[in-house]
Amino acid sequence: MHVPFCKHLCNYCDFYKRKLDSSQNQFEDFHQFLSASVKRHEDLMKAHNFEWGVLDTVYLGGGTPSLWGEKGASFFQKILEPIGVSKDAEFTMEIDPGTWSPTMLDAWKKIGLNRISIGTQTLDPDFLKIMDRVHSLDDSLHFLEVLQKENWNYSLDFLLGIPFSREKKRDIKKELDLLLKYSPKHISLYILNARSKYPHIQDMPDDEFIRDEYLFVSDYLKKHGFHHYEVSNFALPGFEARHNQKYWRAESVAALGPTGTGYFQLNKNEALRYKWKVSEAEVEVEHLSDKELSLEQTYLSLRTSEGWIPPKGSECLMKSWTQQGYAEAQNERVKLTSLGFLMLDSLMDDLFRWEAQRK
Ligand SMILES: C[S@@+](CC[C@H](N)C(=O)[O-])C[C@H]1O[C@@H](n2cnc3c(N)ncnc32)[C@H](O)[C@@H]1O
Ligand code: SF4
């Protein structure tokens, strides 16, 4: 579920969102949009002989879903009721450290919320400002304290490759040490993706700096017991995000909310992806052919530590990947190393070239 509202629009953010304006009834319009979307979704499922299964993961992202507040919890419960959610479902919400309240958390907990993803980004006050965040370091630390005390399962978002990191000597180890004091079980590590109009486009660190930063964080977290189980994700054993694993394993995932993207695996060789439009409760549908599916599954498998089963004839290419430290062979699978995760796009290019030569 994509909830597209934010208190402040951070200048680096890639996601679809609108500024929350208390003088407007944006959430009422959103509720109407969702009600109409649920109907449209039922039609889409019927047209493809698809039915709701009992949901075993629920994920609210955004935007800032925590801004939906207590009203959001009762509205969302009405949406979930006819669908059905498993008793031990993983139910996650993204929360900006400056945008939550105990009553809002309670209301969502009552309807099943049991995991929180926190938009920490950095634990350095100067870099928080550079990143155009409106929450303070104290907001993050206070939120972490509350979550730790109340024994919540939470994940932190952490950004790398941020402007002025080299010039201002960002002390990533100090930030990680502070973060680890709060015993997170899961960390998402994103490399800042800067658009050409990003105000700090001239102040971005170079690729070599970002590579060193990424490999340092990966090593450091591994030393502290985390498993680098996907390009951008680390978890203590047993705390891997179940919801995201569904995307990476190409399992069916339903979506609602503007720009929300869902996926139906129709049969072994056929899938459908749909994306909600932002201005009407309508979807854009894309059918994935056998070939597109196979390519996508290769890419998704290589993203995770489960790895990929390479086809016969690719032994030479796989050997070159392992020799360069990009991959490790384990039984019949190839698993990328942290360096390999960083190089994923160019490894995919290697695969395309190899496939083209084979024909
Ligand atoms: C959609 S945001 C939702 C979280 C919440 N609104 C917040 O900011 O605290 C999810 C995460 O995406 C990441 N993100 C947003 N824009 C990005 C960009 N341009 N490059 C890399 N990561 C980005 C941020 O780390 C953010 O926490
Ligand atoms: S609060 Fe989160 S979703 Fe909203 S603009 Fe900032 S990073 Fe993007």
Automatic annotation (TrEMBL):
SMART domains associated with the record: Elp3
Domain of life: Bacteria
Domain Radical SAM core: from-to ranges: 1-227
GO CC, any one term: cytoplasm
UniProt name for this protein: Coproporphyrinogen-III oxidase family protein
PROSITE patterns: RADICAL_SAM
Record's keyword annotation contains S-adenosyl-L-methionine: yes
Any Pfam family hit: Radical_SAM
Species classification: Bacteria, Pseudomonadati, Bdellovibrionota, Bacteriovoracia, Bacteriovoracales
